[in-house]
Amino acid sequence: MVDVTANNGISTPLEVSHLDVTLGASQILHDISVSVTTGEAVALLGSNGSGKSTLVRACLGIIPPTAGSVKLFGQDLNQSRSVEWDRIGYVPQRVSAASGVPATALEVVRSGLLGPRRLWADRGRKAKRAAMEALEAVDLADRANDHVQVFSGGQAQRVLIARALVRRPDLLFLDEPLAGIDHDSREALASILGRLHTQGVTIVTVLHEMGELGSLMQRAVVLRDGHVIHDGEPPRPEPGHDDPGHDHVHPHKSPEPVRHHAPVLRTDLS
Asked: What is the pTM of this model?
């Protein structure tokens, strides 16, 4: 059941119910049920191969489920045309902000306005203003005309976040936003995401470890071998894992499963 707030907003922007995903001959996700309410900051945790990124891609319709359902703002993903994609932002795992094509930060961010039915949406003053506001949100407005090829890994990641923000989403998915960037850049990203969360953006992010986002995340969903084994309070870091120089090269013990008494629902696009 979807609740509607006084301003007609959906209080559960993401619902995943009994989701299975099979790729090739391998079942990657098994009977996943999770819901995310408006304004939450939720971490998807687990070791490599646990199914975290697959879950996010399934939630966005990038990978089709073999069973179960996903709803975004109350609309079933099977009816993709009815989904309010403008309310959803997605920051994939970082590769290259410009994908090998020479482009400025402003051009990359403006590309976030494009879509199958929005072929010219990145043109004009309104588009430029929206892109500049998104760059301002990630503290890169002064670098708008610089080519992203000269950016550091952390700066390039912020450009990708700005691209996801250019449509002013209410729900933001991020896949390993802290991966491959230095400590100062991770701190900057944590500050940016903290500001977005304060503004009411619902955040769902894939993380290998909580790291600099530990104080922001209100809830953790931990996956192991495609199963949810914990859904609740984020696990506390083991001694030494908050140290800036800590390099994660060893496995962790997984949290014990937590039973929920609330109804278990499940839970950048066009």
From this structure: 0.80
